[in-house]
Amino acid sequence: MRSVRIGVDTGGTFTDVVAVDEQTGEITTTKTPSTPADPADGFMNGVHKVLGGPGLAGVAGIVHGTTVATNQLLEDRPVNLGFVTTEGFEFILEIARQSVPDGYGNSYFWVKPPRIVPVHMVRTVGGRLDHLGREVRPFDEDEAVQVARWFRDQGVTAIGVCFLHSYAEPAHELRMRDVLEREHPSAVVSLSSDVLREYREYERSVTTLVDAAVKPTMRRYIANLSARLGMPFSVMKSNGGVLSATEVVHQPITTVLSGPAAGALGAALIAATAGHPSVITLDGGGTSTDVAVVVDGEPSLTTEGSIGRYPCKIPMIDIVTVGAGGGSVAWISPEGTLKVGPRSAGADPGPLCYGKGGTEVTVTDAHVYLGRVPPHLLGGEIPLSADAARAGIEALAAKLGLTPERTAAGVLEISAYNQSNAIRQITVKRGLDVRDFPMVAFGGSGPLLICRLVDILGLPAVVVPPNPGNVSAFGLLTVDVKNDYVRTHVTKDLSLDTAAAILRDLEAQAADALDREGFPAGRHVFARSADLRYNGQAYEVRVPAPAGPVDAAWRDEVTGRFHEAHRRLYGYGYRDDPRHAVEWVNLRVSGIGPITRPVIPEIEPGTGTPPAPASSRPVHFDDGWGEAPVYRRGDLRRGDVVTGPAVIEEYGSTLPLHPGFTAEVDGRANLVVRRTANGETR
Q1: Beta partners for residue 4, in sequence order
Q2: pTM, whole model, 2 decimals?
Q3: Using an 8 Å Cβ cutoff, are 10 and 66 in contact?
Q4: How many angstroms separate the Cα of 103 from the Cα of each of 109, 110, 306?
Q5: Could you give the angle at the alpha carbon of 653 between the alpha carbons of 652 and 657, nearest 5°?
Q6: For residue 636, what is the DSSP state?
Q7: For residues 316 and 77, what is the distance between their CA atoms, to the nearest angstrom?
Q8: Torsion of CA 287, 649, 447, 391, to 10 degrees
């Protein structure tokens, strides 16, 4: 009897599905339109489609990447939300930080957006702890009861609780939860000591409130999906791990970058298998493009991320998102210049060429007008109207006073520069040279602009995996179970006994979670890390910490890694300067339950000569219109080389190969695209 594992990634436009047969290693992929009104419909449609019919016979496991929590935050829909904090700190959300977003050189021109919880929905409770968790004033239970009853009477059903210094001692927050459970049992409650046991009250408060805001929606969605599936499944987390659905409903904030994280991990495995351990990943979708950097096989992590306008200090893969997808709208600014994005036409009505009532030119329309994508998507399932795209481009060109060709090419050029700027944010701004990294381009629109990105950024090569539109779904099947735990401990003179006790406690929490996930103790893996800074600095640098006994050698190893990481990031360090003491801030543990990853098979070599093109059509590249050969990717074999100008098409994506570029099929069926110089591949 076959045993199949399935990955399902729900995007804004399509739901992508990958199935791996655990006996044969065979990989099957498909796509189906997403159903925003009820994402579970698209999920079930995709599962049945990849299995060839209804029923889940032979399914050993399902992993899901979901945008339910992300969309709620991006659409700014946190409603019916209350906040409980320490007496005297009711304006913590209004005070926030001094930082002003880029583009506002003078803070007088920036108006703070509305808080996630309006001030009239904030209540305070007496009681106070100091920074070491010692009680200064006792918890006021009578006041807590009044607060709980007020929220009950107001009909507030999602409540975040963040008391001062509860990262050091959660006792007051736990008592507040007991009161809420007794006085307002229908409320969903998130405690900051559960969500983020780390100092900095503003970020901890907002992170806790985000968790409370998405918890009711995620619980309904997971319950609905569980009932329809009738079997357990797991959900992708932002930190690069997965968690069972029964556990993830208690920490839904960990799923806010679910899909993009899976894409980065899937691309990392594909690249490493092809001999590229360090790469840039580019996931091009219909609404946005997500970019990340992978160093030595591991995507970079951060706790300084945000979703929409909400800072979320949970560990997440360091992903930069830019509004430069296939549906990004081209528009004319008040100054008369052409802009592209970040606004998107979405899936409905979508680009003009979809024929669903769209009224604005998009990036996809520019590709269609220039002949760089076929007159249909998904092998003919979604026909495209070239006439509608042409009419839109011509109307936009008339307003700009340009030819339609220059207008369409300009739309694509601006989109390419938007993507390249996002890539610079995760490389140049992190102290990395973008020219040292090949790029893995995937997603439905990911390969469309790679030739321009090679020229703009000086990339050595771009790897386009087979079925690039399904890499995120494939990535779901490559992910270990992973939970993160943190404890703030600020000190310049680290006590080894205290550090050892904190790490033991964090590892015990991680072990309990792995036990609940079904991993025996012998398969538990613990990864330690620490956040350090030089005394006087405001923010920290995270470095890995070794396993084993916490002794003087362990402390010296961690501080040495910090000095080197700081020098690499900022260009300087104080390793041998005793005037700059090192301050420890946070200790962290990740509990990992490893899985068996799918194997990417090698393919048979071809003849060295690519097959004859399947067809040809007029395509506009930099040197104007010309008849370009069109190849079916499934016809290409290992070692085949296609020379531009050409177009390579497959079920879920298209690669326009510009003049001066080649695409070679490697041993894992990837297309490796390079710029040629003087007729030689560079």
Answers
A1: 21, 59
A2: 0.84
A3: yes
A4: 10, 9, 18
A5: 160
A6: -
A7: 22
A8: -50
